[in-house]
Structure formats: C-alpha cells, structure tokens
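Bumping my old thread because nobody answered last time. Still need a sequence for this structure:
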C-alpha cells in the first residue's frame, strides 16, 4: 500500500475508535485536518467503517489493531502512526466496563484486573509513548494528549460500575499530574469527562434504556450525542485552547 501524504495538522491517534465516542472523535479530527489512526482491539469491521467514512469525505485515515494494555502493542501503534507523518495528537478513549452490572462486592477479580489493565495501565502506556514521541526535548513536534474520563467520577456509579468509575478517577489524576510534568516540553494534557451519552455501550451492557432513565437527572434533560463529546475534544486539541493544560472538562448537560 502506498504511503499516505502527510496531513497539515499531523497525525492523531484515537484509541477505541471503532464505535461510539471514539468513532465520533476520529471523524471530527479528520474534519479538523488531521490524518487519523483509528485504533481498535477487536472490532475490525467497525474500524474499517470509520476509516471508509473519513476517506469518502476526502480525509486520511488508517485502522491499526492494538491492545493498549500491552506495551508492545502500544509501541507498534505509534510506529504505524509515525509512518503516516508526525504524531501531534493522542486521544486516549479506549476503556471497558467489564461484563458485570451490579454492586462492587460481586465484581470478579478477573474483571477488576482487566478493567484496570485497559483503563489505567493502558492509559499510562499510551501517555508514556506519547510523551516520548511528542516531546520537544526528544526532537518531537509537541502536541496534545486528550484523555477521555467520565462524570461517573462524581457519582461513583453505585450499583452498576463502581470499579469503572474508580478507573476514571485515575484518569483525572493522571491528566493533572502529567500536564504539569510535560508543559515545558510542548505537550498539553487535558481530559474530557462525558456525562450520559447515546452510544452502544449501555445496550451492550444490557441496559438499553439507561440514558433515557437518567434524563430526568440532567438539567438539559437529555443525554449527549457522541459528536458533542468529539467537539469538546477537537477544541482542546486546537490552537484556541493553546493555554489550557491540566483541565478536566465536563460535557454533561449540567449533571
């Protein structure tokens, strides 16, 4: 396959981009002028659909399979992206809840381990490699890291996903700490914390009406669309947000 031409904004890696918020972020990044690496771990068909949609509108996109919980996969993901041009944005969206819905006491050890491996360890591996590649001190171009958190950190998701909410608390802490570490290296680190959002996550977990049930608790009276989360991400990536780092931006309709 011929090498793609370099995007005017560089390359954006979006993890977990085969569906939902990740897919919307990939589409929005392409519109903003980035070449996009659509990362996925198992949903090849979904990733290909996102890539084809971006290309159909004249954008540059490539799908790369990688499990972010595996450091070797993370390094390969960045290597594949760097073949397309300089990586200037990394959006860490990949996360899982585990199959169980219920109180924390019932969550099996295997589920706890896997959720932490992907949501915390995977995020750290991605951020480590992003700093290595983007840092001005290492000859990189500088750029932006955006982590996808959740407003579940406020409510704690009792009775459903306390373990998942706890990992998103770790995302917020990492965002603030890493932002301070790398600010002088030309890298901005921020997070977007979506509230209730209309994605397939809830139906896949056996709760297809979850967003509707939460609507009365949201001041704006509805869940977010993935594109609304993506708009916040691309704004934080843009020069308009050039003096913002270490921020966790809630996109939650006021909830």
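Sorry it took so long. Here it is:
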């Amino acid at each position: 396959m011929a090498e793609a031409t370099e995007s005017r904004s560089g390359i954006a890696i979006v993890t977990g981009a085969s569906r939902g918020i990740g897919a919307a972020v990939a589409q929005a990044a392409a519109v903003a002028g980035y070449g996009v690496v659509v990362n996925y771990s198992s949903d090849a068909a979904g990733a290909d659909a996102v890539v084809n949609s971006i290309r159909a509108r004249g954008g540059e996109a490539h799908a790369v399979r990688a499990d972010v919980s595996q450091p070797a996969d993370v390094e390969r993901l960045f290597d594949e992206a760097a073949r397309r041009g300089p990586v200037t944005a990394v959006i860490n969206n990949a996360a899982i809840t585990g199959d169980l819905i219920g109180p924390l006491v019932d969550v099996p050890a295997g589920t706890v381990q896997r959720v932490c491996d992907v949501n915390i360890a995977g995020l750290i591996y991605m951020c480590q490699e992003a700093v290595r590649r983007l840092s001005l001190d290492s000859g990189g171009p500088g750029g932006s890291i955006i982590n996808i958190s959740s407003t579940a950190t406020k409510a704690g998701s009792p009775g459903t996903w306390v373990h998942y909410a706890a990992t998103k608390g770790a995302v917020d802490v990492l965002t603030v700490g890493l932002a301070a570490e790398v600010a002088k290296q030309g890298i901005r680190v921020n997070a977007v914390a979506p509230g209730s959002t209309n994605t397939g996550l809830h139906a896949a977990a056996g709760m297809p009406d979850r967003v509707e049930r939460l609507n009365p608790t949201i001041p704006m009276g509805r869940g977010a669309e993935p594109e609304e989360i993506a708009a916040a991400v691309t704004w934080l990536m843009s020069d308009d947000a050039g003096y913002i780092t270490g921020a966790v931006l809630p996109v939650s309709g006021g909830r």
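Residues 103 and 159 are 4 Å apart (CA to CA). Let me know if any region looks off to you.
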